[in-house]
Every structure is written in structure tokens, then in C-alpha cells.
Amino acid sequence: MAPMSPLIRRALLVALAVLAAVAGAWSLEQWLSLRPERPFAHTASGHLMGWAGLLMILAVLGYPARKYRLQGRRWSRRWFLVHLVCGTAGPLLILLHSGIHLHALVPMLALGMLGLIVVSGIVGQSLHYLALRSVNQQRQALRHQGMAEDDIDRRLRALASSEEAFRLWQAVHGPATVVFLGLSLLHIVGALYLGGF
Amino acid sequence: MYLPQSSYPIALGMTLVIFAALGAASAYDPETLWAPGDLSLSHRERACMACHEPFRGATSARCRSCHTPAAFQAAPAAVAEPHLVMDERQSCRSCHIEHRGRSAGLTFGALPAATAVNPHSDFIFRVTGAASCRDCHAAGGKGAHYGLLDNQVVRQLVARGKGAHGPGRFADCLRCHAGGHLDGPRP
């Protein structure tokens, strides 16, 4: 059997991890549902998970805000970590808040959009990782060929600029966040209007 | 090609279109858009605001606009008595639930949903001061005594019976306390 390419191996691992996380969060919600007639997701604690998840998702916006403020002058590693951690934990809390009780269209659309954001984020992160690895491999190869560092930098800059194509995923990741926030707002207002405080 | 900057206005436009579509759809089928589950057959013809008050949720006041005390008085005793007593103490939502499916039971508590009537009648609440089934029964309790708890309320009730009360003799209070009076005939 031919060995898997790094891209396929990573994609499979990520897909498995995402499926395990979704199954884990929904199983936990089932386990926490002490009363069959009132699932955890529909209790005050379940609602609290929703608020906590929303706060974490809002914290995720710190990274793009910081990036916008610095205008690409410096990469904020700390905010990026916040982005990754909150971008993982927030949606998991939202899954705990939703449970597997999917019925109303508005929150379902919001959840679907959240899934799209998470998946596109993972794809983007993977693409950047692979691009960086490719650039480093190229640098090693060019060094072995005895090319001067300046020439290597020039060659790699050309390679890196083609990496911009990878950023197409951002056309999904950022704008989907706008749609998600709109749908979430609608869901929250609707839930408070009909369900009360 | 670097799309992100140009796709934000598209996303904003999409959000507004979705808002408008959902707003329009809400007028025709609000349950599909907003309800956490299907309404029971009993309430499926009702509009949302027949039961929900804005920013207050489903309130007992809205329930009573259809399920009036007069209607309960005319109902069989097993239905009427708990309602007339419970109404004084707590909200309808303490025992009833909705949006759990077309054929789901609307009453929950220590008793099986299929027979979710109070076999003690209102009498048990009056004499014990209990406010819900769970004051004496464990949630989801099964078996002969439906998870009867060993707590202050139950112990006091047993003590008050001077030997006449005990598991197995609580089920039908009115058998001995005819008419729901404390001084009714005893076996």
C-alpha cells in the first residue's frame, strides 16, 4: 500500500478529531440530561453553556482585530493562541448548549455556519502549516544546491506569493463569521423573546 | 487573488437577505423556525403568542386563559384536584412541558408519563405542604412506590398516620379520607 501523503494524513486526522469532538460534546450533553423530559440543553445550565460559548467566540475576534490594528506589521502570536483555543472551546460549548436536539431552523443555521467557520479555520491552519513546511523543505534543498541565501530568499518569496492562493479560504472564514454573528443575534433575541429571561 | 476584503460586503448582504427571508417565513411557519421541538397535538393549532408572553416565556396566565379554573372544576377529580391546589402554589411549567414532540406527554414528575395523574388527589399537597411530586418521590422513581424518598415530608406524613400511613397505603388517600377531609373515616 502506498504511503499516505501528508495532506491526506492530516486531513484524515483532523476530520477524525472533529467528529470525535462533536460526538463527545453531544454525548456529554446526553449524559448530563438527568431528566429525560428536560434535556440538559434546555435547562438553565444548558443556556449558560450557550452564553459561555458565545463569550469565547467573541474572544476569537480579538485576533483579527489585532491584525487589523497592526496592519500586518507584526504577528500577534498570543492573540493567535487565544483565537485557536477559544475557536475550539467556544464551538464545543455551543454543541453542549445545543445538544443533538436540532429543531428550530434559526439556531440550526447558526450552528451550520459555526461548523463552516471551524472547518474553514482548520483547513486554513493546515494549509499554512503545509505551505510553511514546503518553504522550509525548498530552502534546505536550495542550500544543498549551493545557492546563495539572497537568491534562496528571492526564489522562496515567489513561492510564498503563490501561497496567497491558499488564502482563498479566508474568503469563507471571515465573512461566514459575519453571517454567524447575525444568525446568533437573531437566535438570542428570538429565544429571549419567546422563552423569557 | 485575495478575496477577503471584497467578500465582507457580500456576507453582510447575505446576512440581511437571510434576515428578511427568516422574517417572512416566521409569519407562515414560526414553529419550524423558532420552536425547540414539535408542539403536542393538544396545542399544535395555537399561535406562539397564545402561550408565550414577550420576554417572559410561557406563563401560567396564558395557560389559564384557556385552561380556566372553571374548566378544571368540571374535569374528573384526578385532573381537577391537583390543578386547583397546584395553581395556588406554583406555575404550570413546574409539572407541564411542551415542544417535546407531537405525541409526547405534557406532564412530568415521579409518575410514569402515561399515567401522570396524581393518585393521592390534592389532599396530599394540602396535608404535607408539598409543592410538587418531587418533594416525596425521586425523579424517575420506579417500582412499587415510585421512588418514595425518606425525608422530612414523608416521615412526618407517616408519623401523622399513627400506623395507618405507610408505603402501599398512600396511593389512594381519598379511600380513607373521603371527600378530602382529614377527619374522614379510617380503616
How would you describe what is shown here?
The complex is a heterodimer of chains A (197) and B (187). Chain A is mainly α and 197 residues long. In chain A, helix 1 runs antiparallel to helix 5, helix 5 runs antiparallel to helix 6 and helix 5 runs antiparallel to helix 7. Chain A contains 7 helices and no strands. Helices cover 79% and strands 0% of the residues of chain A. Chain B is elongated, with a radius of gyration of 24 Å. Chain B has a two-stranded antiparallel sheet with strand order 1-2. Helix content of chain B is 42%, strand content 2%. With 187 residues, chain B is an all-alpha fold.
What are the SSEs and their pairings?
The complex is a heterodimer of chains A (197) and B (187).
Chain A: H1 6-32, H2 44-60, H3 62-70, H4 77-98, H5 105-144, H6 149-162, H7 170-195
Chain B: H1 4-28, H2 30-34, H3 48-51, E1 52-53, E2 57-58, H4 60-66, H5 69-73, H6 77-89, H7 123-128, H8 152-160, H9 173-176
Antiparallel strand pairs in B: 1-2
